[in-house]
Amino acid sequence: MQAVLALEDGTWFEGRSFTGQGEAGGEVIFNTGMSGYQEVLTDPSYIGQMVCMTYPLIGNYGVNPEDVESDRVQVEAMIVKECCKQPSNWRATQSLPDYLRDAGVIGLEGIDTRALTRHLRIHGTQRGIISTRNAPAAALVEQARALPPMEGANLVEQVTVPGPYVWGGHGPRPVVLGQGQYTWPGAGHRVVVYDFGIKWSILRLLRAKGLDFLVVPPSFTVAQIMELRPDAVFLGNGPGDPAVLTDVIHNVALLVDRLPVAGICLGHQILCLALGGTTFKLKFGHHGLNHPVKELATGRVEISSQNHGFCVDFGKADFYQPSHVNLNDNTLEGFRHKTKPLMAVQHHPEAGPGPHDCRSFFDRFVSMLDEVVGKES
After folding, report:
1. Which of 53, 77, 129, 169 is least enclosed by beta carbons within 10 angstroms?
2. Quick one: which of 193, 192, 223, 189 has its CA closest to 209?
3. Is 109 an active-site residue?
């Protein structure tokens, strides 16, 4: 079925829908991963975005219920050069077209994804519309221009949870707190995890490291957190503009003087803002599985998984120690506080998808808790 992708700057591409009739709008970005498309599709950080995969053939190994990063497809649309309709993999339970069709998400193929990627690299991310209806391209361009920009967008409220939960191995299991109290079931360090749209791979790795954690929504206040008597707070990933999360930033600013805090991606940005830093939007973002990051303490170069459109800036502050830097554009990829037990990274050490080079972050988090909790006890 014929379909059109129209960008806000007037550029448009003709292709085909491989999921039937439909229309979708959002910020058009590109992801440089050669695989991992199912994890990309279900990552809540991609809500509000239409993802162009730069690798030309997508879908050849199908999809399965084990490799998801949330309970549903999160992207607004998927754009590929060619979609494989007949996957071949022993783990596959469904084809990519059927998976997207069941989720009500449009898939576009047959366009020159290299040309689209180059256009986004030169001109920056664009709001766009994909449509199968026979509408003039100019009308779709105007429709794209009417979409809200990513700057100022609070998308966390669309992907977070209504209440606390524990990780059940294959998904969240809701918890009812009795008068704000919680009986920690394990013997590991007690960690309250903020869910801004957190990937399930992060929760799997926190569990694998022996941590006892309770996941809470962004609305949880400092008083509610402290009533749980945790050893630390963990800030997960999520979508949208971090600067609009003023209530969360305020809460974290109070927590950094009371508890150890760690963060990933959006959590990295929130921690920076809570410490007085700023954030800015990148021209076309970092989205892929092959971004080189240098660990400054050792000089070790790690290949990282990334998905963010905003970056942090501490200005001339001297209270933080940069821990990682992006070797593509020298943006800050991680930091530690010089005197407080605070640490965060912009990239995704849990991968899901991607290489596992950066998973030592979780070991450093546990080591930080061992040191801090040991001193307190």
Report:
1. 169
2. 189
3. no
Give residue-wise pLDDT tens across range 123-168. 999 999 999 998 998 999 999 999 999 999 999 999 999 999 999 8
Tell which residue, 194, 163, 356, has the closest CA to residue 262: 194
Tens of pLDDT along 22-58? 999 999 999 999 999 999 999 999 999 999 999 999 9
Q: Which of 84, 265, 272, 358 is catalytic?
A: 265
Per the CB < 8 A criterion, the answer to whether 189 and 231 are in contact is: yes
Catalytic residue (one of 69, 76, 295, 350): 350
Rounded Cα–Cα distance for residues 140 and 128 (Å): 8
Q: Is 348 annotated in the active site? A: yes
pLDDT in tens, 285-296: 999 999 999 999
AA identity, residue 194? Y
Query: Which one, of 49, 59, 106, 104, lies nearest residue 81 by Cα?
Result: 59
**pTM score, whole prediction:** 0.96
Q: The tokens 């607004």 sit on which residue?
A: 76
